[in-house]
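Hi Prof. W.,

I finally got the DUF4212 domain-containing protein prediction working! I wasn't sure whether to trim anything, so I left the full sequence exactly as given:
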Amino acid sequence: MSQDNDNNAYWSANVRLILISLVIWALVSFGFGIVLRPLLAGISVGGADLGFWFAQQGSILVFLALIFFYAWRMNKLDREHGVEEE
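And this is what came out:
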């Protein structure tokens, strides 16, 4: 029974991490790049407004940061639950 609880805790933490990462990515790419673009139009970044920057480059940079964060956090989670790779 303890093994089942540990497996459930591991997968629960894994799914929670995935959902948080997806929400951040959706907020940055869809929210800042499309929905909130008119509100960000007055802020200039590199000669373009901030909403355009998020749509063209910002969401990609945030996605790359999320990939590295996810890999780092999953390695830590794997070590905590004893399923790390050698």
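The mean pLDDT is 89. Does that look reasonable to you?

Thanks,
D.
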